[in-house]
Amino acid sequence: MIPVLICVLISLSAAASDLGTLYPELEHSRTIYITENGPQLSVVAEQPKVVSRRGANVTLPCKIQRDQSLAPSRRMRIKWTKLTSDYLTEVDVFVAMDYHKRSYGSFHGRVHLQGSSPMDASLVITDITLEDYGRYKCEVIDGLEDGTAVVSLDLEGVVFPYFPRLGRYNLNFYDAERACHNQDAIVASIDQLYDAWQEGMDWCNAGWLSDGSVQYPVITPREPCGGKNMVPGIRNYGQRDKDRNHYDVFCFTSYYKGRFYYLIHPSKLTYDEAVRACQKDGAQIAKVGQMYAAWKLLGFDRCDAGWLADGSVRYPISNPRRRCSPTEAAVRFNGFPDKKHKLYGAYCFKSLN
Ligand SMILES: *[C@@H]1O[C@H](CO)[C@@H](O)[C@H](O)[C@H]1NC(C)=O
Prior knowledge:
Oligomer: single chain
Bound molecules: 2-acetamido-2-deoxy-beta-D-glucopyranose
CATH superfamily of the largest domain: Immunoglobulins
CATH architecture of the largest domain: Sandwich
Order of helices and strands: HEEEEEEEEEEEEHEHEEEEEHEHEEEE
Number of domains: 3
CATH topology of the largest domain: Immunoglobulin-like
Shape: elongated
Helix content: 10-25%
């Protein structure tokens, strides 16, 4: 074993009175310097970011590197936490010490250590949910030594702007969380909105993001969207009051387990008829998030306006053509018509679970 050099320097104000006049801030201070042969334990994530999708299994990498001069590990503790979207707190995910293992909250029964070697602290998460998106911290504690690494879990998916039947700018932050959830989605993060903007999202209504800020993406600067002379970018209203301020929301969703489809039916339907027709087909009326996921991730294309669960009428176009969104691939929105109008078809969703 290589001896570890520990050098302690104590400067007491009495013994170092001339130092004290030279460096008054050192007076009464006691400085302890500890020199060692570098850190004896370090923790690394071989990849800082892992990309997966809803429903898949993922491994968050975390490798322990221990100095060989260290005595064989007695009790190494491995702890995984998740950073909240505002990065202010951490949520427990998993803890392992010796043979004791514990998983927490929504991760219960879905997480375990990969354990390919004693130095492997990688975490496996099965059946990924939208809420699993975010940053995770791997922390290893070995006696007095301690190391951490951070890994981001990114999900393939789609961001969409949303407001409910109530109309524009009617959601406080908590309403916004519910609104996305009701459409099979979560509130998007700023990173997800940024990616969507890079892919061409241009939307002139401000919406909540998961960190409690309110922003919107602009590709073509124009007067009603922050000004004609601004550069393209994401306009940021900053952090807003989560209870009192009301905006739209940007939702995020990923792949689903199920089948999204347009119901073939002999006549046009009212909203209630659409709900019943889907049920009769062994399905449910589809949610807005499911239409966006089918359109963006599976290339779904249908030029028929149909009812969705929130009472809106939309249709997804992947191949722009005359009379069907001629200029761009998009989910077209016909608003929230009178639910009694017998004018539209129905989009249904059959879950595979
Ligand atoms: C995920 O892992 C579980 C258990 O280890 C397995 O049963 C399941 O088939 C896996 N799912 C996928 C999508 O690979």
